[in-house]
Design a protein that fits this description.
The protein is of the alpha/beta class. The chain folds into two domains: about 45 residues; about 220 residues, TIM Barrel, CATH 3.20.20.80. It has eight helices and ten strands. It has an eight-stranded mixed barrel, surrounded by five helices. Helix 5 packs parallel to helix 6.
Length: about 280
């Protein structure tokens, strides 16, 4: 009897274990399904353009037909004979914006060649400066003006502002305005402000910046959420175009080809002689 009694207890324990193990597996499945659902909702669905661009053909927002790209030394060995006839979403590449300078002393190695080739291959071209917060804003503006020589037919100068560094919001806005004022005084046109949708809303929300043309970076969506006026929209960093190996940033101009041409620097806008710019 004792032996039989001892033999029944393991069966009971095993039965209880099986019953609770079933609950555990049901719980694991529920957690897994919930996790997958949340991951898709927050990370895949909002950025479906990105996933499609990386793992397949990139998609381009519809309703626009004036398209362009921006490049730097990262897009090295550009095949300009192919790029000049390239298209994005069956629309020709109309404009190219090229990185020129960063901070007060960093010059993009490929700027001169890219800037020259863009003009030679009949693209409307522009040149941008990557702003480094905490570095003297006046020195950054003068460095850009010393290295970049825009001419009638080029896009207005561009300031790329993406970071705050250790600056307060007020300090950042003051420095950005300093750069903009110096460069505007040189070319007689308001520079383009490049920034992300979120950065604009968080750090460039002062009314003093609303008078500038905006180039908004907001990726992997089919409609720009920024409600203010904008001129350019950088909609992906995973674009593909003939003549460039690998990914490239793709942009939309908010208007027609004639509007784009009208947006460029004009002959009548006299440029300040180089000697008048303090070194």
């Amino acid at each position: 009897m004792k032996r039989n009694g001892k033999g029944r207890k393991p069966k009971k324990i095993k039965s209880v274990f099986k019953r609770y193990a079933a609950y555990v597996w049901v719980g694991i499945i529920i957690v897994a399904v919930t996790y997958i659902g949340l991951f898709y909702y927050f990370f895949v669905s909002p950025y479906s353009f990105r996933w499609k661009a990386i793992y397949g053909e990139p998609e381009y927002p519809e309703g626009y037909n004036v398209r362009g790209i921006d490049i730097s030394h990262y897009q090295n060995n550009i095949k300009w004979e192919k790029l000049r006839n390239a298209s994005l979403n069956n629309d020709p590449v109309r404009f190219i914006i090229i990185k020129a300078t960063e901070g007060k002393d960093l010059y993009d190695d490929d700027f001169n060649d890219n800037f020259f080739q863009a003009q030679q291959n009949d693209f409307i071209r522009g040149a941008y400066h990557f702003f480094v917060p905490g570095v003297d804003a006046e020195a950054q503006a003068k460095f850009y003006l010393h290295q970049v020589h825009l001419v009638p037919g080029d896009l207005p100068p561009v300031l790329d502002i993406e970071k705050t560094g250790k600056l307060t919001k007020a300090q950042l806005q003051k420095d950005v305005k300093t750069w903009l004022d110096i460069v505007e005084n040189k070319y007689g046109v308001k520079p383009i402000l490049y920034t992300s949708y979120k950065f604009k809303m968080d750090y460039l929300d002062s009314p003093i910046f609303n008078e500038y043309p905006y180039w908004i970076a907001h990726y992997y969506i089919n409609k720009l959420e920024y409600k203010g006026d904008w001129v350019l929209w950088q909609h992906t960093d995973c674009g593909k175009v003939d003549g460039i190996k690998g990914f490239v940033d793709c942009n939309i101009f908010n208007g027609t080809v004639k509007d784009l041409e009208a947006f460029t620097i004009k002959e009548k806008e006299e440029l300040v002689p180089e000697q008048e710019i303090e070194e």
